[in-house]
Amino acid sequence: MLKISKLHKSYPIGDSSLHVLKGIDLSVEEGEMVAIMGSSGSGKSTLLNIIGMLDEADEGEYILDGVPIVNLTEKKAAIYRNKFLGFIFQSFNLINYKNAIENVALPLYYQGLKRKERLEKSLFHLEKVGLANWANHLPNELSGGQKQRVAIARALAANPKLLLADEPTGALDTKTSYEIMDFIQSLNDEGKTILMVTHEEDIANMCKRIVRLKDGVIMEDVFVNQERASAHV
């Protein structure tokens, strides 16, 4: 599904440069649920941005679903993102003046679907996250957990190959975090491949595998041995 080899990334700082990723090798198979962990400055956000085609590596290889991701124009990157990826963000990134169903429909608009089909698919996904009755509500009428469910429905709407979640529980209380993780686990159980950045150990332990970064290198890559932790514990 995803294969990264010898990935390097540096950013200029004044006259020098900061070497953020130092030869990352990472493979993720279809159906995996992987947590990426690391302290601030470890490179985890840079890695996620490169995987999400929001940034480009200086050197190394990135292959997604058999397609080399290299030298993309902004237009091509946007097409690939819409084709391959679904994004879930800590801050939800909903459009405030659009209601829930319109927010979910956005990726489908960019795929060129007719309005009727967009709304039908969007309602299906809102139903999947338990929010069909909230379809016409604006984001400011929703709780944090409901906003994140709308964001998950939007991420799923275009049927992506890979879900990228950046601190998806970071803005939520513990109970709501576990409910959201419960739902994300169920998506993985259905076969969805999920890559998640988190700094919370309990959230990471609800994944199937944990990759730990430090100073731009992978320090540890382990499978979670125990029966996958339940969000209800």
TrEMBL record:
<dbReference type="InterPro" id="IPR003593">
    <property type="entry name" value="AAA+_ATPase"/>
</dbReference>
<dbReference type="InterPro" id="IPR017911">
    <property type="entry name" value="MacB-like_ATP-bd"/>
</dbReference>
<dbReference type="InterPro" id="IPR003439">
    <property type="entry name" value="ABC_transporter-like_ATP-bd"/>
</dbReference>
<keyword id="KW-0067">ATP-binding</keyword>
<dbReference type="InterPro" id="IPR017871">
    <property type="entry name" value="ABC_transporter-like_CS"/>
</dbReference>
<keyword id="KW-0813">Transport</keyword>
<keyword id="KW-1278">Translocase</keyword>
<feature type="domain" description="ABC transporter">
    <location>
        <begin position="2"/>
        <end position="233"/>
    </location>
</feature>
<dbReference type="Pfam" id="PF00005">
    <property type="entry name" value="ABC_tran"/>
</dbReference>
<comment type="similarity">
    <text>Belongs to the ABC transporter superfamily.</text>
</comment>
<keyword id="KW-0547">Nucleotide-binding</keyword>
<protein>
    <submittedName>
        <fullName>ABC transporter ATP-binding protein</fullName>
    </submittedName>
</protein>
<dbReference type="InterPro" id="IPR027417">
    <property type="entry name" value="P-loop_NTPase"/>
</dbReference>
<dbReference type="GO" id="GO:0005524">
    <property type="term" value="F:ATP binding"/>
</dbReference>
